[in-house]
Amino acid sequence: MKQEECKNKKKLDNIDLLKALAIYFVIIYHFNNIPVNIIKYDGVANYFNLYFKSIISTCVPIFFFVNGSLLLNKEKIDIKKHTKKIIKIMILTILWGAILLMPLMYIRGEIISFTFIDILKGSWIFQPSWNYSWFLCALVMIYVFYPLIYTAYHSNKKIFFFFFACVMFFTFGKTLLVNFLTVISYLSNKFTDAEFHISYITNFNPFNQFGYSIGYFMLGGLMGKILYSVLNDYKKKVTIMAFVALPISTLCLFLYAIIASLRSNEMWDPVWSGYDTIFTLINVIALYIISMHYKSVGWFGKFISVVGKNSLGIYLIHIIAGYILKPFFVQLECSTMLIANIIYAFIILLCSLLLTITLKKIPVMKYLVSI
Fold first, then answer.
1. Cα separation of 184 and 189, whole Å?
2. Are residues 181 and 196 in contact, defined by beta-carbon separation less than 8 angstroms?
3. How many CB atoms lie within 10 A of CB 81?
4. CA distance linking residue 328 with residue 347, whole number of Å
5. 353: closest CA among 315, 327, 320?
6. Distance CA 17, CA 294 (A)
7. Burial of 113 by CB count in 10 Å (0-12 exposed, 13-18 middle, 19+ buried)?
8. Do 182 and 263 contact (CB within 8 A), yes or no?
9. pLDDT tens string 144-193
10. 266 secondary structure, DSSP code
């Protein structure tokens, strides 16, 4: 019994670490001032920064992956509680759309005045330039499919793997084909003005732009069950493979970002555009394997645990904290240095964490940062 409890605790330690790392990567991505434009400025620092951005493309995918690892390996599913959870997330998405709208539009000087109707309209219409609650929308999509995926996962593996194969083909498979054609186009210097949408695959594609999130979710469930038994037999080999795969896969994404940017003469974002690439997928798996060796110890372990457990609140609040601190940070001479941006993101993380913990202590407000 004690051995089983120890194993479960180690799993939770692993999950907390991944969630803490993911939310930190999200903050770095949203609020950084590092130059990466290799088209306009051909400096070594820009290439190094672009490689770093290729690493943090794992940010949001880790959340989907971890969700799958936890939910698909539960002993049972309570459909009533699950339905309530979906409704809560939807309400939370709309509420935060309204909450973020007012301060962000004021901070960014996008409008001078707005009415209550404007707030309602703005909170409903998805605007990627300032609304980062798309993650919650993708989560709702996953949770709608979850009961079906869970049932197939535990009762009929053939159906589960059929659906999993379809998801991976129409998301990661399609993107891999586009990546391949883009590289061939660049190397051959032909069809450089063409955008490879693969229309036939797109027409048959039953998944929207966030369909890859289901792939991460399902893979997380599989890895969560398989890897612990695999590590017992091949612990050293699997870990070495993960450590080798991580920098190589990141390098591949980095090189593709360079090729895609030079081909279109426009910077290709390895984070937002890299979520559904095979390279980010490999990196997420590698980080998951490496994190399984993590054990929560001392003050660092407690800090990671607190950040991991409050990652949703941090995700929602960091937008406001980041925009408030941004004007002060960009005025610093060191604001374009990578190390300065890493520290800056950590300060935003701490501020958001403190605000989340504070809100959780207020009876009604606590529901704004938890589901």
1. 8
2. yes
3. 8
4. 13
5. 315
6. 8
7. exposed
8. yes
9. 999 999 999 999 999 999 999 999 999 999 899 989 989 998 888 876 55
10. S
Distant-in-sequence, close-in-space partners of 355: CB < 8 Å, separation ≥ 6: 313, 317, 321
Evaluate whether 16 touches 300 at the Cβ level (below 8 Å).
no
Closest CA to 197 of 179, 222, 219: 179
Fill in the DSSP letter of residue 132. Answer: -
Q: Write down the domain spans for the chain.
A: 2-369
Cα gap 253→51, rounded to integer Å: 8
Kindly state the DSSP code that residue 208 receives in the 8-state scheme: -
DSSP string, 31-50: S------TTT---HHHHHHH
HSE (side-chain half, CA atoms, 13 Å) at 122: 21
CB contact at 8 A, 254 and 149: no
**C-beta separation of 224 from 210 below 8 A:** no
The C-alpha atoms of residue 297 and residue 17 are separated, in whole angstroms, by: 12
Distance CA 50, CA 45 (A): 9
Lowest mean pLDDT segment, chosen from 58-67, 166-175, 233-242, 332-341:
233-242
Residue 91, CA distances (Å) to 78, 122, 127, 282 in order: 20, 15, 17, 34
Is the CB of residue 280 less than 8 Å from the CB of residue 25? no
| Residue type present at position 166 | C
Residue type, 27: I
Contact between 280 and 55 under an 8 Å Cβ cutoff? The reply is no
Which two three-digit tokens encode residue 22?
């993911």
**pTM: predicted TM-score of the whole model, two decimal places:** 0.89
DSSP codes of every residue in 75-119:
S---HHHHHHHHHHHHHHHHHHHHHHHHHHHHHTT--S---HHHH
Burial class (CB in 10 A: 0-12, 13-18, 19+), 328: exposed
Other beta carbons within 10 angstroms of residue 222's beta carbon come to 17
